[in-house]
From TrEMBL:
<protein>
    <submittedName>
        <fullName>Guanosine pentaphosphate phosphohydrolase</fullName>
    </submittedName>
</protein>
<dbReference type="InterPro" id="IPR050273">
    <property type="entry name" value="GppA/Ppx_hydrolase"/>
</dbReference>
<feature type="domain" description="Ppx/GppA phosphatase N-terminal">
    <location>
        <begin position="43"/>
        <end position="287"/>
    </location>
</feature>
<dbReference type="InterPro" id="IPR003695">
    <property type="entry name" value="Ppx_GppA_N"/>
</dbReference>
<keyword id="KW-0378">Hydrolase</keyword>
<dbReference type="GO" id="GO:0016462">
    <property type="term" value="F:pyrophosphatase activity"/>
</dbReference>
<dbReference type="Pfam" id="PF02541">
    <property type="entry name" value="Ppx-GppA"/>
</dbReference>
<dbReference type="InterPro" id="IPR043129">
    <property type="entry name" value="ATPase_NBD"/>
</dbReference>
Length: 295
């Protein structure tokens, strides 16, 4: 038996994450991927970038300190290989490349800027394929702070994938107008037209939290009716009530409402009754990508 250590760094618009995995290789058996540790920091780069077009000095310092800490944690864990990916906020920041260069020089962490298509392909390398049945059609939705990735799976294969600048941080800051919602609605209806047995696969911290709040067992799907009711319930509470009464972290208590809105609206437009929540995302995909790309 051989145990290898891999790490994924996901630099999103709302939060950044360090995920470490034990990858267990044993002759004659399938490789086992086991989560070792997860660190999440709510730096929220998107609030800077979507309002002002740049990452502020303050958030650059916070991000740099986080990368230094992540580098130390990876050393302690004995990580042999890592990949750091930055998405929407870093892509759109006028000083994004400068920040990346500064972080590399000061911490040694090399960050890759990836677009929505690359992000979707990395996520598709996860255990998502184990959930998808050839006789059903799925809309995979990965909700982020700056954008949301939508992928249609039909007959077990990707039919089409698109990234929309409708993310939780943008919605919180009033940066998504009606025309953007209309574009999404038309895109979804056009690309699922004629397809039957439609359901949604959701990923991201918010849908994972919603699934936990529902009390359903792992692998049990959410219903559209429950999710719609939960959206109205959450919206009826103040921010303070969502923190004190529901026990949500402050950095989750605000973004969970726009995230739920994205899932509810999408399900309504395509007529989906079920939302599967396999609890996978970009970080998990990075681990698989690293492993299967090994020399």
């Amino acid at each position: 038996m051989k145990v290898r250590k891999y790490a994924a760094i996901d630099i999103g618009s709302n939060a950044i994450r360090l995920l470490t995995h034990n990858v267990i290789e044993e002759e004659g058996k399938d490789t086992l991927f086991k989560k070792s540790a997860l660190v999440r920091l709510p730096i929220r780069l998107g609030e800077d970038v979507f309002k002002n077009g740049t990452i502020s000095k303050r958030n650059e310092e916070r991000l740099l300190n986080a990368m230094k800490a992540f580098q130390l944690l990876m050393d302690v864990h004995g990580v042999e290989k890592y990949m750091a990916c930055a998405t929407s906020a870093m892509r759109e920041a006028d000083n994004g490349q400068v920040v990346i260069d500064n972080i590399l020089e000061a911490s040694g962490v090399q960050i890759q800027l990836i677009d929505g298509e690359r992000e979707a392909s990395i996520i598709a390398s996860t255990d998502l394929k184990n959930l998808i049945r050839k006789d059903e059609t799925y809309l995979y939705i990965d909700v982020g702070g700056g954008s949301t990735e939508f992928t249609v799976f039909s007959e077990g294969k990707i039919k089409i994938s698109e990234s929309f600048k409708i993310g939780t941080v943008r919605l919180l800051n009033g940066m998504v107008d009606d025309s953007m919602w209309n574009d999404l609605e038309h895109w979804l209806k056009r690309h699922v037209k004629g397809l039957s047995n439609l359901s949604i696969i959701g990923s991201g911290g918010n849908i994972n939290k919603l699934h936990k709040m529902s009390g359903r067992k792992e692998g049990e799907s959410l219903s559209y009716i429950w999710l719609r009711a939960q959206y109205h319930f959450l919206s009826s509470l103040t921010f303070e009530e969502r923190v004190s009464e529901l026990g949500l972290n402050p950095d989750r208590a605000d973004v969970i409402i726009p995230a739920t809105q994205i899932f509810v609206s999408s399900a309504k437009w395509i007529g989906a009754k079920k939302i599967h929540v396999p609890k996978i995302g970009l970080s998990d995909g990075i681990i698989k990508t690293l492993y299967y790309a090994k020399e």
